[in-house]
Structure prediction request, 186 residues.
Amino acid sequence: MSQMNQLVPAKSGIALQATEVPAQYLTFTLGGEMFAVGILNVKEIIEYGNLTEIPMMPPFIRGVINLRGSVVPVIDLAARFGGQKTGATRRTCIVIVEVPDADTRHDIGIMVDAVSEVLEIPAGEIEPPPAFGAKIRADFIFGMGKVAGKFVIILNIDKVLSVEEIALLTGSEAVLPEAAALPGVA
Prediction:
């Protein structure tokens, strides 16, 4: 990896500071809108299915999946943003992301309509989040990336999937059981 102040060769032959190197984002659709999350947060993308529902959870928590022996909660992003629950189609995916919680990290699945592609969006092409008019909370938005003349909403995944806030909303500390044994999930 390059150090922060080392020069990095660019395609044009002009050297860029490492802080100016475009970041990569995984883009996906949700309710007809294009969203993105930093690729460094993404662990894997899996096919939608085999969810175990948990009773008395808010609508945005769709259930849990067994991911190689670990219990991973799955969040419906559309419902998390205050919309309707996402209907599963053949393109529906679960993106497994890693989010920080104090001194640990948790794997959380996010349910999306369809994964699009990995894009590089230079920092100069990212505008600050809008002050009003967005369908989701402003603190959920890291910025608005300009890609091919259109905006992509870059999510602040640490805020969207805040472990403390989700625990508060569910009234439970057991929302993110790291290795808890749930009935029917082995």
Observations:
- The longest strand covers residues 93-101.
